[in-house]
Amino acid sequence: MKLSGFSPVEERFFIESGNTLPTTRIPYIIASDFPKLRLLIALRFLEWVDESPEGDMFVPVSLNALSLLNSTFTNCYLSQVNAGR
Questions:
Q1: CA distance to 9, 17, 52, 66, per residue, from 47 (Å)
Q2: Is 44 left (phi over 0), alpha (psi -120 to 50) or beta?
Q3: 6-24: average pLDDT
Q4: If you average pLDDT over residues 55-77, what whole number do you get?
Q5: In 10 A of CB 29, how many CB atoms?
Q6: Which pTM was predicted?
Q7: Is residue 14 classed as helix, strand or coil in its secondary structure?
Q8: Of 37, 53, 82, 85, which is the most buried if we count CB atoms within 10 A?
């Protein structure tokens, strides 16, 4: 089954999630918990690196930068979860 707008990794996660196909312009995947979401992000990143060897990436070089990224992601994710309730 080929889903429009999804990469192969995203497609696999979407199928395993059992969610219905989004009808929005931008496809999305609902993760059931943080570990699955983090696995999806990590695998999608590796997929992107494989497809874009010339691409630039940001790598946090301090604990402060990593902490800032983590708190920003967590706040954004939780705000979206709360908005759906």
A1: 7, 19, 9, 22
A2: alpha
A3: 86
A4: 82
A5: 19
A6: 0.59
A7: helix
A8: 37
pLDDT of 29 > 90? The answer is: no
Write the DSSP string, 21-85: PP-SSS-----SSHHHHHHHHHHHHHHHHHH-TT-------SHHHHHHHHHHHHHHHHHHHHHT-
The answer to whether 9 touches 43, Cβ cutoff 8 Å, is yes
| Tokens 């706040």, located at residue | 75
- What is the predicted pLDDT for the residue at 66? 82
Q: Report residue 46: phi and psi, to 5°.
A: -60, -35
Structure tokens belonging to residue 57: 């990436």
Please give the single-letter amino acid code of residue 30. Answer: I
Residue extents of the structural domains in the chain: 8-83
pLDDT of 34 strictly over 80: yes
